[in-house]
Amino acid sequence: MPSNAGRAPFAMPVDDGAPPKIPRSDSALVELAMRKHVLLYGLIGGVLIAGLKFIEYRWLVVDHSVEIYGALVAAVFAGLGIWLGLRLTRPARHTETVVVREVRVEAPVEFVRDRDKVASLGITPRELEILELIAAGLSNKEIAARVFVSENTVKTHSSRVFDKLGARRRTQAVQLGKELRLIP
Amino acid sequence: MPSNAGRAPFAMPVDDGAPPKIPRSDSALVELAMRKHVLLYGLIGGVLIAGLKFIEYRWLVVDHSVEIYGALVAAVFAGLGIWLGLRLTRPARHTETVVVREVRVEAPVEFVRDRDKVASLGITPRELEILELIAAGLSNKEIAARVFVSENTVKTHSSRVFDKLGARRRTQAVQLGKELRLIP
DNA sequence: CCCAAAATCACCCATTCGGATGACGCGCCC
DNA sequence: GGGCGCGTCATCCGAATGGGTGATTTTGGG
Asked: What is the DSSP-derived secondary structure letter of residue A83?
């Protein structure tokens, strides 16, 4: 834009100034762009006023200092207004729309024991433990060795849990136990 | 979110001169909008000043009215600036943060038989069938009745599959079979 | 402290299961 | 035709399992 370089008083303060001191913020880019536009605006304003001034001179306007004063005030307050507007809307700019997208994750689907069912069937902790070991494929003897009891005890426990599950074989007990979410 | 949503209110007939550049990005769009508004602003400013000038002449404002004039200009331009600032930041307010939250979804994960493992273990279809029925909790006799063979045949099949799996008990065979994805 | 539930152990008996072995028939392929 | 894989069936035997009964000890709560 051609400026009236001849008129020193019209050198807009924004022209040489406006040091690009950009505050570090997430919207630094937007602010930079805006600053650019404030400059542009000032420039246009200056040209406009210059035009008016020229017209004023052409028409022998008495006092032109009022226009300069007004233009300066206008420019300054416009900048202030923009800045204020940005200030005021800053919190609003943090408005974000949270979109929750459900993503299918290959989850091992960790086991959750159905304690209610365990309770309703009257299965004791020990019996459940034995059932788990049966499901692991251990024999009564191995289970007895692992939990430090006699094989007879293991048999008793398993018999009881079979009874409570209505199972006649250990494989059936395992199947039912898994189905009823008593064991993993 | 349609990016031109913020643009719609600014569709002004004043600035057709602006080449309809294809908005490559949001920043380009913001700049375009801003240019429009700077032009509009300048126009309004010019009109305002002209109006004030007219008023000034009409009412023969004295020297003291300069303050009033300045204040008016300041107030008006400050308001304009605020309005402009708000307008300009509107696109920023549309900033949308997409938060992808991974949600564990119960995935049924239907069973897929590991045929390679079946083949590598040399397990025949019949043996696999028997293994499945064993896993279902059936006794050899029940299996025999279901597949219409003698119990001895079932025993042979199960013995073979136990051998191939390295299992010593049917519960262990079931456990291994599930672990190796041979059966559901 | 007492009681009931739970856990422990034992014995007996019948059934089931697992291992080993042998045999027969059928379809397939070299 | 002979070999091979697969499915079928059988017999014997020992081990494991399931069912029933009874008993003792431990434990937790009223």
From this structure: H
